[in-house]
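Quick review question:
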């Protein structure tokens, strides 16, 4: 089956892992390359050391997608939390786009703080968003890495794998209400995977044309598990992502060249408002949870 072969290729060439606190260099360099150098969403002057960093990095769970043959950072995503004990009490979208919210009960400022989170800073390195033979990427010609055709064929699944990872982090840390700022077109594309999104705000200019979207993470997880296209990918991501957060080796000057990224975000519809069920302890990778 085609979907099986694509997931098999993903398993062969890519790995997803959690990163914590002081071990975010690869992720922050990737975001610099995408958000500053490629798209100009952030000023280079605000990114010393070629790292895109903000105050929410210390208040988030992070995921890194690595290209196993090269060890290169291929993508990343984070899930920001605002528990009552956290120093920052508002989600990024509340601080920057609050006035765009619709009058709906499913906006973050009307929900319990300990149950909300925001998926943000999703990025896929430009090299993994281009097909073989196109122009050189910011780190050089794609031909230089000698990527095989079957590796290039799985590139479109990379962003989807990060959406799946974000959903799993929400469930893992028991955050029922998840939000994201994303392009409405992206929400329409993701709907084809079985994920239904609810727009809860007007389109604004924030890192491009974006709107606030809501997802019930429990429902999103169930939709992914039911999806013929995503269920196998979900099982694989779950088994690898929810290991203990990885502590990478010290970053060398050569590794500083491992840049990644491009924006996007997941979320799904607010129907059937039951409390998020606790994951069963028998499920792989879900022992001893919390978001």
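Suggested answer, residue by residue:
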């Amino acid at each position: 089956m085609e979907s099986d072969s694509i997931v098999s290729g993903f398993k062969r060439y890519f790995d997803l892992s959690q990163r914590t606190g002081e071990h975010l260099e690869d992720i922050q360099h990737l975001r610099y390359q995408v958000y500053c150098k490629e798209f100009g969403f952030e000023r280079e002057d605000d990114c010393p050391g070629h790292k895109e960093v903000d105050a929410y990095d210390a208040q988030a769970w992070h995921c890194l997608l690595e290209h196993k043959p090269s060890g290169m950072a291929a993508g990343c995503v984070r899930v920001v939390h605002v528990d009552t004990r956290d120093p920052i009490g508002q989600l990024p979208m509340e601080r920057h786009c609050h006035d765009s919210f619709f009058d709906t009960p499913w906006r973050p400022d009307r929900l319990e703080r300990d149950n909300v989170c925001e998926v943000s800073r999703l990025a896929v390195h430009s090299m993994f968003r281009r097909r073989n033979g196109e122009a050189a990427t910011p780190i050089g010609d794609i031909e230089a890495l000698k990527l095989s055709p079957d590796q290039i064929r799985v590139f479109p699944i990379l962003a989807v794998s990060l959406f799946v990872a974000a959903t799993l982090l929400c469930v893992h840390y028991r955050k029922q209400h998840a939000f994201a700022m994303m392009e409405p077109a992206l929400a329409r594309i993701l709907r084809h995977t079985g994920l239904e999104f609810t727009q809860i705000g007007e389109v604004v200019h924030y890192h491009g044309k974006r709107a606030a979207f809501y997802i019930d993470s429990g429902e999103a997880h169930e939709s992914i598990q039911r999806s013929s296209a995503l269920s196998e990918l979900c099982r694989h991501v779950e088994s690898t992502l929810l290991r203990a957060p990885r502590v990478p080796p010290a970053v060398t000057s050569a590794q500083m060249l491992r840049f990644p990224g491009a924006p996007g975000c997941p979320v799904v519809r607010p129907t059937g408002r039951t409390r998020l069920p606790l994951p069963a302890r028998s499920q792989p990778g879900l022992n001893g949870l919390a978001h």
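Why it works: The helical segments are 2-13, 25-38, 92-97, 149-153, 156-172, 184-191, 217-226, 231-241. The two ends are 34 Å apart (CA to CA).
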